[in-house]
Amino acid sequence: MARTSIASSRSAKVSRRNVLVGAAAAGGGLALGFHVPALEAAVPSQRPIAAAKGAEVNAWVVIGNDETVTIRVARTEMGQGSLTGLAQLVAEELNCDWKKVRTEYPTPGQSLARQRVWKDFSTGGSRGIRGSHDYVREGGAAAREMLIQAAAQQWGAKPGECVAAGGIITHKPSGRTVTYGKVAAAAAKLEPPKSVKLKDPKDWTIAGKPLKRLDTADKLTGKQVYGVDVKLPGMVSAAIKDAPIFGSEIKSYDEAKIKAMPGVRRLVRVNATTVAVVADTWWQAKKALDALPIQYEDSPHAKESSATIAARLKEGLEPEAKNVFVGNKNGDALAAIAGAAKKVEAVYSTPFLHHATMEPMNCTALYTPEKCEVWSPTQNGEGSLAAAAEASGLPLNKCEVYKMPPGGGFGRRGRQDYVTQAVAIAKQMPGTPVKLIWSREEDTQHGYYRPITRCRLAAGLDDKGALVGLHVRLSGQSIVAYQQPAALQNGMDSRMFQGMWAEPGEAQIGYSVPNLLIEHAMRNTHVPVGPWRGVNTNQNAVYLECFMDEVAKAAGKDPLEFRRALMAKYPKHLGILNTVAEKAGWGKPLPQGVFRGIAQHMGYGSYSAAVAEVSVNRGRVKVHRMVLGVDCGHAVNPDQIAAQVEGSVAFGLGAALYQEITVKDGRVVESNFDNYEIMRLEAFPKIETVVAPSGDFWGGVGEPTICVASPSVLNAIHAAIGKPVRSLPLKNVDLRSA
Amino acid sequence: MAKLNVNGKAFDVKVDPDTPLLWAIREQVGLTGTKYGCGVAQCGACSVHLNGELARSCAIPVSTLKPTDKIVTIEGLSRDGSHPVQKAWAAVDVPQCGYCQSGQIMAAAALLKKKPKPSDTDIDTAMTNICRCGTYQRIRAAVHMAASGGTAAVTTNSQKKA
Ligand code: FES
Ligand code: FES
Q: Same domain, yes or no, for A169 and A72?
């Protein structure tokens, strides 16, 4: 994610250890062969590894006698569509027949044994495609060149006289043809080309097209095997409970109370704060765990609550607050505002939020003293491998990870806590596979939450209504401080300012302000935090974009015109804003009682904007229609980009409407979907997506638009009720008197 | 012990009487297409048809079921994914992660059985299952498509050329 990557630090760890084991690791992809006698009967699909039948032309491409093309994908498919997109990119350069394309995941162990030939497995920060498009396309192109060369050799012809299309190579002078499947074995023996030329995206015929996803069929019939569905011979199930107050150590529990309950195998103390019950089935394990009396040591956090946390954050907004970092600055904002003809001030706040992936955390582990295997629904296969090695005490090359397709990730599955736990339990039961599944309650109360922040904004306008100064003071929790304190830069977490950076390319602010000061008061809590789809762009876009509307109103200007006047130096930000405004019919008449709001923001290398149409009736918000646009540079699959945009509205707007994680007596209050509400179909607006790739860069897709969903709706609500809403979620705000 | 009739087959399952049907289906019958999402009848991931009616199986203890009660899971909706709802779902490319989709499809199939030509309001009322990936727009389009026997869904997206 962004500049300080938590995910990549995991990978870095893997690669460091990789060096240590590199010498011992065998060269062949399947050389990690292992035998667990108890599982000899296991069907192969229980160990999903890269094992396509056919000739491996290179690491990315395997071609079968039957012309099947298997494309290897290292990044995780968790719904975001990059499995299909990455396959499109390889297939595009390969010039194969798309109808013959299959995909498979290489395992992290296979990759390790081959000097990380598949490079980075981590799938976060909307990097799946933008972080690997070059080398996967090169893989496809190199395979194509090798296939052509093999055909030419067979014909005694020059490769330059041959062309490949649709999986068929043609010798132009003679008109002879041969299919990929016929020459793949010979191609696999050739030296790969030293360099390849990639196609100009203008010439794409497979990439850039709204092709159907490759992974849909099994999701319609119940056949898709998720982590929770793993079945292994002799497998037992585990339910788990971590201390309700984060970090509280277990004092005691009364094992006798549950020992005789049906199916119970054993109780496992997983770590100082966590206990698990292992039983024949998960339902038995959960029932027993619920019946287990557990005492915890006193916790220093027992007095923490949403109120104490809010007070700490409020203090961070004071002018004299300490531990404040400057993220972006030019001129003298404080003086400019003090001397301005008109001043606007506001304080906004956003709560902790939970990922609530549809599939709760889970992992299956099988440990023997020789080998540790995990079936992990993870966003980072190599992270799971490192976690398995650490928890089992075995070297990396004695561990293996089978990546299961996660039922949602959204950042949560970049963590490996559930892998560590599953291995810790399995280690107590060598030779017995253990499937650990979290209850929804455990999942809701032991997340890595989107951090809580508040923000005080102040602006100065001159007598013509032009913005002369802007001061943004954030106060709140830092993900880097929690997860990776060593990565703080002299105490600063620069990702706090995501979308408000001066530097171009990733998450740049889109406004020229003559006097600007953007700061963050570091105010951490005992609540674990982590990246949540869109990370800090979410909060920052709400603060900045809603305040922009407040300032525009004070200046007596139309919100779009007010923004445009500040955006001349940011043509890509402005471009998508204009595109969306035009598509939405900004300024055109609306039905009685319907109001528009607009927002733009940058994140993950892409530019996003949205216009929402909203009505508020007796305090009830109805979002009728939204137009969202994204300029992601290159659009690999426009229909899947639209799907991500639609999904980002459900995720981002749903949060703004209903969601907050609150804290009482040191613990999370919310526990399930009855008190942590998710947006449902009935509330979902009509979405129109404009995919507007401007072509000279590669931006992300999964996260960028989420940050404009909420502020565009909040600005429309402001227009409707005449007052800004500054505190989320909206369910806590009485819009009749807001 | 309980006797369950799932997808037309009789099963003797050895479970405590308070075991939810969901877990009996997943762990004893061995069909894992029906998913656990919340366990408290909130999300619909566990939706099945019980005597032709939509039901959230996490909230039904097996002790309340008779051996004659007919339970249909996603695996029993059609033999090969050919139910009109499944076909429409494929045509619209509805699923993202897919985890909720067994339940969504079961809910849509139940709706169309009652209301072969549902209005948007009917869909709003009937389709209350959670999809965390936010596939709702496509779900709506696919329900309409299944109802109309496969006519193309309206697409509202556009691509601007660079
Ligand atoms: S699991 Fe049954 S409704 Fe959620
Ligand atoms: S497709 Fe992921 S929860 Fe619905």
A: yes
Say yes or no: B7 and B47 in one domain: yes
Nearest to A78 among B97, B136, B159 (CB): B97
Share above pLDDT 90 across residues of chain A, in percent, rounded to a whole number:
93
Q: For tokens 């999942």, what's the residue? A: A443
- How many CB pairs (< 8 A) connect A and B? 214
CA distances from A675 to A530, A697, B3, B40 (A): 21, 42, 35, 11
Is-contact A278 A334, C-beta < 8 A? no
Determine contact, residues A509/A499, Cβ cutoff 8 Å.
yes
Are residues A483 and A380 part of one domain? no
Distance B132 CA to ligand 2 centre (A): 5
Q: Which of B77, B96, B121 is the last residue of a domain?
A: B77
Q: Smallest Cβ distance to B134: which of A359, A406, A651?
A: A651
Q: Decide the pairing of beta strands A342-350 and A162-165.
A: unpaired
Tens digit of each residue's pLDDT (9 = 90 or more) over A160-176: 999 999 999 999 999 99
Chain-centre distance for alpha carbon A608: 17
Same domain, B60 and B113: no
Mean pLDDT along residues A651-666: 98
* Distance (Å, whole) CA A586 – CA A590: 10
**Alpha-carbon gap, residue A270 to A291, rounded angstroms:** 18
Q: Which DSSP string corresponds to A315-382?
A: HTTSTT-SSEEEEEEES-HHHHHHT-SEEEEEEEEE-BB----SSPPEEEEEEETTEEEEEE--S-HH
Q: What is the mean pLDDT of residues A640-661?
A: 97
* Nearest residue of A to residue B94, measured between CA atoms: A216
For A170, the domain range is 2-219
Q: Which ligand has an atom closest to residue B34 CA?
A: 1
- Residue carrying structure tokens 């079936």: A375
Split at pLDDT 50, 70, 90, the class of A127 is confident
> For chain B, how many structural domains are there in total?
2
Asked whether residue A737 is domain-assigned, the answer is no
Section A58-65 average pLDDT: 97
CB contact under 8 A, A80 and B102: no
Residues B58 and B102 in one domain: no
Please report the pLDDT score of residue A7 as a whole number.
36
- Contacts for A693 with CB less than 8 Å, ≥ 6 apart: A631, A632, A633, A634, A635, B160, B162
* pLDDT value for A27: 30
CATH number for A668? 3.30.365.10
Both B52 and B92 in one domain: the answer is: no
**Within-domain flag for A101:** yes
- For residues B121 and B105, membership in a common domain is answered with yes
Same domain (yes/no): B19, B67: yes
ipTM (interface predicted TM): 0.96
